[in-house]
Amino acid sequence: MASEEETGKGFTVQDRRRFSPETGEAREDSREDRDTTQVESAAGQPEAEHDAPQAQEPLPAINFSTFIISLSTQALMQLGEIADPLSGQVNKDIPVAKQMIDIIGMLRDKTKGNLNAGEERLTEDVLFDLRMKYVEAVKKK
Fold first, then answer.
1. N or C: which end of the chain has fewer CB within 10 A?
2. pTM of the shown model
């Protein structure tokens, strides 16, 4: 085989690690590379901005109660009781609201005997309230 010098072909290896392998400290040249080079994501935004963590409140812990409350909030939005948090508009979609209420009812039936007293009470109260609001929405329509 011919050597690289003879063929004129070759490649250059650049160490792009942010930390020095010897000391483990940040390398000066890597900071400059990151500041001057921005790769754009598929959305056309620089990845540095796209990947940056947003200053938001931490999400609540996921458990059965928060799941039921999440579903009930969606049902309330579909009933026109509360505004959509993204658009700020109040929209009604009664069939979708009925489906959300039925999903909560199905979850209650499928989890019977597996919930603690607080979760059972919450599910029953949410179902009762949503069903009453659904009846009112159907009467108004």
1. N
2. 0.58
- What pairs with residue 21 in β-bridges? none
- Give residue 103's identity as a one-letter amino acid code: I
% helix / strand / coil in the chain, to the nearest 5? 50, 5, 45
Site of tokens 């812990």: 61
Bridge partners (DSSP) listed for residue 19: 26
- Give me the DSSP letters along 78-93: HTTSS--TTT------
Joined tokens for residue 30: 């890597």
Token digits of residue 37: 């080079």
Q: Are 98 and 107 in contact (CB under 8 A)?
A: no
Residue 102 pLDDT exceeds 80? yes
Burial 81-114 (b: 16+ CB within 10 A, else e): beeeeeeeeeeeeeeebbebbeebeebbeeeeee
Per-residue pLDDT tens for 24-59?
666 665 444 444 444 444 445 554 444 555 668 888
